[in-house]
Amino acid sequence: MARGLKRTLGLFDAFAIGIGAIIGSGIFVVTGIAAGLAGPALLISLIIGAIISGFTALSFAELAQAMPEEGGGYKFAHELISPFAGFISGWLWILSNVVTGVVVSLGFASYLALFIPFPVNVNVIAALACLVVTLINFLGARGSSLINDILVIIKLLILAFFVVFGLGAVKLENFSPFIPNGGIGIMQGATLIFFAYSGFARITLVSEEVRDPKKNIPLAIILALGISTVVYMLVSFTAVGLVGYKALASSGSPLAEAASSVGKNLTYFVSAGALFATLSVLLTTLLGLSRISFAMARERDLPQLFTQLDKRATPYYTVLVFGFIMAILSLFTNLLQAIALANFGSLLYYLITNYAALKLEERVYPRIIPVLGIITCTVLLLFLTREAWTIGCMVLLAGSAFYYLMKKRQKNQVFELSRGS
C-alpha cells in the first residue's frame, strides 16, 4: 500500500459501493429507455445483460485477487498489457464515468423536481448535486462509504415496497405483444442494461482501501451483480405489468410513472427512492474517479498534483477537479449523447480488462471466461449508434495525442536534468 492509503473498508462497504453504483440511474431512468427498445422482452434484455456482465465481472474478480491495487482496470492493463493500454483504459474510464456522473445527476434532478411545487431548472439542480457529493467525498473513503451504506439500504427497502405493493396490480395484458421490436430490440435493450449493470467494476478502484482484498473484493463483485440482477428483474416485471412498456419509454421517471397507477403515495415513495439511489451512484462515481486518477498520477500518466492526500488519506485535488467538471457539464449536456459516450468508453474499458485477465498465468476461472467477455463486449460495441462510435473515436484520438505529448515532455525533462548534472 503506497502514498498513505488506509484499509478501512470491509466486505459490506465494498459490496455497497458496487450495488450503490449499479442500482441507480439504470433502474430508475435507463430501464424506461430500454423498455422502449425491447418492449416487455426487457426481461430477456436484463438476463442477457446480466450474463454478459457476469463474464466481465469474473474477469475483474480474478484480476482483483491477483493484483489488489488501487486503479482497477487501469492498473490491470498497465501491468499485464502495456503502459499505453493502461493509459487508454484509464482515459476511457475517466471520460465515461464523468459522463455517467452527469447522467446520474440529471436523473437525480428530474426526480427531485417532482417534489418542488414550482418550475425549476433541472440542470442547475444537477450541478448543485455534484457539488454536494464533492463535499461528501472530502470525508474520506470511510466517511463517504458509511453514507453510501445508508443510502443503499434505504433504496433497497423502497424498491422492495414498490414490488410488494405493485405486484397485486400487475396486468398480464401489458406483456402482449412480448417482443414487439424483434431480436434487434432485445439486444439494443441489453446494451443499455449493460450500462446499468456496469457499476460492479467500481469496487476494484478502491482495492488498497479494502481489508483482506483478495477475498472481499471478488466476493463483493459477485454479490453486487447477483443481487442487483434479482432486483432489476422484480422491479422491471412490476413496472411493465403496471403501465406497459410504452408508458415507461415515454417517461423521464419511469418507476414514478408505474407507481402512479397504484397511488399517489407510492409515487412519492418511489421518487424518494430514486433520489437516494441516484445520489448513491453519484457518490460512488466521484469516489471511483478520484481513485483511478490518483492511481494514474502515481504512474505519471496524469499530473502529479493528483497524488496529493489530505489527513484522511483522500486524494482531494482529484475530488475537487472531477466534482467541478461534472457540475459544469451537467449544465449543458444532452442526455442521449452522454449515454452514447458512456457506453462506448465503458465497453472498451471492459474489453481491455478482459484481455488483461486472459494474460494471467495463474488462473482461478477457466480461460474461456475472459474470451467470452471479449466477444460479448465486442458484440455490444457493434450495437452502439454511429454517433457513439464517432464521439468515442474522437475521444480515443484525443487520449492518444495527450499520452504522446505528455510522455514526450517527460522524456525532455529527464534529458534536461541529465544534461544539467
CATH topology, which one?
Amino acid/polyamine transporter I
The parts where pLDDT drops under 50 for at least 5 residues are: none
Derived structural class = mainly alpha
Q: In total, how many beta strands? A: 0
The CATH superfamily title: Amino acid/polyamine transporter I
Estimate the global geometry from the Cα principal axes. globular
Write down the secondary-structure element order.
HHHHHHHHHHHHHHHH
Number of helical regions: 16
Mean pLDDT over all positions:
84
DSSP strand content: under 5%
> Alpha-carbon distance between the termini?
33 Å
CATH architecture type: Up-down Bundle
Question: Tell me about the biggest sheet?
Answer: none
> Regarding CATH, which class?
Mainly Alpha
Describe this structure in words.
- The protein is mainly alpha-helical and 421 residues long.
- The protein has one domain: Amino acid/polyamine transporter I, CATH 1.20.1740.
- The protein is built from 16 helices and no strands.
- Helix 4 packs across helix 14 and helix 8 crosses helix 14.
- The chain starts with 10 loop residues before the first helix and ends with a helix.
- 57% of the residues are buried.
- The mean pLDDT is 84.
Report a brief summary of the structure.
This protein is an all-alpha fold and 421 residues long.
Keywords:
421 residues; mainly alpha; Amino acid/polyamine transporter I; 75% helix; globular
